[in-house]
Specification:
single chain, N-utilizing Substance Protein B Homolog, Chain A, globular
């Protein structure tokens, strides 16, 4: 598994734990970083992604609610919710990640960790977001 994909999977696992049982984010990320055999840049990417999602969670959840209005955010599967948060965060805050890569990685995570319908759902929500936010308009800071 490529380093960035492994880092995203690790970030998803950490966010799942934080979201589902409310463990302290700093401790969860530290423990997850120790458990995996990621190179230092992978650990750094994992922590930056997870911390970015945590920091911007309210805004990301608002975006999910807007682009998936028939599915209340708090009732989404925890995996799906956090995959969407991660992808939306990357699309808006990581200029080093191409848009197609962010979407593809989210769909791949949904295939691995989500239900049978998760990849289609994730792709649909991200597609709706991108229709309103063309690549040149995305804030990448």
């Amino acid at each position: 598994m490529k380093t960035r994909r492994q880092a995203r999977a690790l970030a998803l696992q950490a966010l799942f734990e934080i979201d589902s049982v409310g463990h302290d984010a700093t401790l969860v990320l530290a423990r997850r970083g120790e458990d995996e055999t990621l190179p230092p840049d992978g650990v750094e990417f994992t922590q930056a992604l997870a911390q970015g999602v945590i920091e911007h969670r309210a805004r990301l959840d608002g975006q999910i609610a807007k682009y998936a209005p028939e599915y209340p955010v708090d009732q989404l599967a925890i995996v799906d919710r956090n995959i969407l948060r991660m992808a939306l965060y990357e699309l808006q805050h990581d200029p080093d990640v191409p848009i197609k890569v962010a979407v593809n990685e989210a769909v791949e995570l949904a295939k691995i960790y989500g239900s049978d319908s998760a990849p289609r759902f994730v792709n649909g929500v991200l597609g709706a977001f991108l229709q309103e936010h063309p690549p040149g308009e995305l804030r990448r800071s």
